[in-house]
Every structure is written in structure tokens, then in C-alpha cells.
Structure of Metallophosphatase family protein:
Amino acid sequence: MLLAVFSDIHGNRQAFEACLKVARARGAERFILLGDFVGYGADPEWVVDTAMELVVQGAVAVRGNHDQAVNSSAETMNAEAQIAIEWTRGRLDTAQRRFLAELPMLVEDGDRLFVHSEASSPRSWHYVRSTADAAKSLIATPAHVTFCGHIHRPAIYSMSVTAKMSGLVPKTDVSVPLLRGRQWLAVLGSVGQPRDGDPSAAFALFDTVSCQITYCRAPYDVETAANRIRENGLPHWLADRLSQGR
């Protein structure tokens, strides 16, 4: 089965639509949604409704820290992110907020694990910035492949049977075999707010038979997404950063 894996959509309708279109054109059979459906972007209602429809159709979805923040004042954000969360709260209806509140922190699916931040302490929202961070996540689960997001920059880490770690930054459209003799942590880039210098929306395709992962990019109408942010009175930096991929 070919899985399409998305993370950190952040209310960006234009980016999510572009990723879904490319993934379907490339034969994706099931969708995996790694959280942060809301925050930053100006179309949280559409994104959440789309996620709800995909889950009904068999998609896997987990909770991100921005999803958590919509229903919990205990989650603290930087000033601009907090403004966006408070604005988002006023846009979502009861069913949409309930959907976010009831999302699991992680999902185990055979020899795969799906989580927003990382597996050792999902509720702490740690970022995977290094092989040391990745090792903590991999040690916490027997899964062959763990998929996560949260940091908005794509990376792949692996751990050998002797606990030797390695890492790489995947190239777009170059398949990487996730060999059975190692554990793997596939860190997704962001659909709605990439921070790796490339403004194109990011996602990945994973073939469950060959165990190959391919990181993909989907160009989208960045200016429309940015204008939607400005028109709704959200901080302009949230719009400006989209064209910079940061």
C-alpha cells in the first residue's frame, strides 16, 4: 500500500489541496495526518473538515500541539502563534473542536508508529533536532519506522542493532529504502509552513511493501494563502514567511 504522510498543515488550505492532488496523482491509497491541522493559517475550518472526511474514509490522524492548544489554555506559544490560536478558537465549531480534542497522541499500525513530535514523550512536544533526539524517540518504541513532524524540516534518522545512529536530509523525489536491519525515524517537512528554505508544501510517500520513502514537494499558490492571513488580521509575519520557506 502507498501511504501519503502529511504533517503541520497549519490552516493552509492552498498547500493542503496541492499536496492531496499530487499524492492522489501519484497513487496514494491511504492518508496519514501527523497533526497541527490548525494555527498560523487562515483556513482552519476547511482543513479540519477535510481531515475529518479523510478519517471517515480510513485515514490515520494524530494530535499536534497547536490542535491541543485550541482546547487547552495550558499550552503556551510564542506571541504570534498565540494570536493565531485565539483567532482559530473563534472560527471552529463544536464538532471541529471535539475532533481535535479526541485525536490520539500516537497510533501504532503494525510495525509503524505515527506521532506528531516524537515517541519518548509525545505530550512534551520535543523537537527532533539531532541524532541524540532521534535516538530517544527510537529507543521508546519497537516500531521499524516512526513517522513524526513538528519541526517543519524533513530528515531521516536510523539506529542499528548496536545503537549506532545516522542521519540524512532527504532529497526531493529520491526514494530511500528503510532497511529491515535498522530502526528508522522519518521526520516530515511541513505542508502549510515549510522552514527549510523551500516554500513548496512538503509531504512524503511510503511504500509499505518495498519500505521505501520518498519526500515530495508540491508548489502551491503561496500569495493567496498569505493574503488570506493578512485579510483576517493575523500577524503579517505569518504571511511573509510563507514565500521564504522559513
The chain is about 30% helix and 20% strand. The mean pLDDT is 96. The CA atoms of residues 105 and 222 lie 30 Å apart. Residues 2-243 form a domain with the Purple Acid Phosphatase; chain A, domain 2 fold (CATH 3.60.21.10).
